Amino acid sequence: MRLRNIPGSREAIAASPFVVHDEESMKGKWHEFFKNDNPIHIEIGMGKGIFIMECAERNPDINFIGIEKYSSVLLRALEKREEKSDLTNLTFIRMDAEYIENVFDRNEVDNIYLNFSDPWPKDRNAKRRLTSSRFLKRYTNIMKESGRVTFKTDNNDLFDFSIESAEESGWDILAMTRDLHNSEYNEGNIMTEYEKKFSGLGHKINMMIISYSRSKLNEKEAVNGKE
Ligand code: SAM
């Protein structure tokens, strides 16, 4: 999602109390920020933030951080966030997730949500996909070992790529369906903006939940001669 550039969006974001502006200085300090020890869940590429706002409303004992690359999109999320100003367990960051290790410390994040991530269909752009081995490696450097990545998409090619990428990177697939809305995993599912749009068009929604074991990854790296 990339909306037309909205003049003044950067300034509006800079003035918002619902956005963390000096995100790199927060590394290792997110629990201090939320003033509790509750788990931290992040959504990368939250778009207009519909999913994460509902997550925060339904789960007051979890801290949520929505990450979005584009100011014009984040601005739309902020319009809705302002209507829910009483939520104390939700904040936003405008950044490219490529730099996520500068913002979160080892073991700081419990769960990551990737919803309808950009597919980057050309092979030469595969490393930009949020489920590529490069990104999965970044996630292991910020997540607790018990943490999970939940990924939803209607894009079958991206889903197939993500299964391969997770397996090759040594992650375990804990749950998987190619038709979320007609599966056992649909109970409690919170629909994202794209999920509503594409399921409305008759597309089936793929979903997987993955986790990793640090010792297994170390073993794999040793075999590959990286350590
Ligand atoms: N998650 C929302 C949903 O399901 O309705 C939006 C999906 S939209 C296709 C993907 C979003 O991810 C866009 O808003 C895009 O700007 C954002 N995005 C893509 N790559 C990103 C990155 N590297 N870092 C942060 N945001 C990113």
What distance lies between the first and last C-alpha atoms, to the nearest angstrom? 38 Å
How many strands, what sense, and barrel or not for the largest sheet?
7 strands, mixed
Shape verdict: globular
Strand content: 15-25%
Strand order across the biggest sheet?
Answer: 3-2-1-4-5-7-6
Catalogue the ligands: S-adenosylmethionine
> Helicity range of the residues?
25-40%
Order of helices and strands: HHEHEHEEHEHEHEH
Low-confidence stretches: none
Tell me how many strands there are: 7
Structure notes:
There is one protein chain. By secondary structure, this protein is of the alpha/beta class. The protein is built from eight helices and seven strands. The protein has helices at 9-14, 30-34, 50-58, 71-83, 133-140, 156-168, 193-200, 214-223, and strands at residues 40-44, 63-68, 90-94, 109-115, 143-153, 171-177, 206-212. Strands 3-2-1-4-5-7-6 form a seven-stranded mixed beta sheet, with helices on both faces. β4, α5 (133-140) and β5 form a beta-alpha-beta unit. The protein is globular, with a radius of gyration of 17 Å. Bound molecules: S-adenosylmethionine.
Summarize the topology.
Elements: H1 9-14, H2 30-34, E1 40-44, H3 50-58, E2 63-68, H4 71-83, E3 90-94, E4 109-115, H5 133-140, E5 143-153, H6 156-168, E6 171-177, H7 193-200, E7 206-212, H8 214-223
Parallel strand pairs: 1-2, 1-4, 2-3, 4-5
Antiparallel strand pairs: 5-7, 6-7
This protein binds S-adenosylmethionine (SAM).
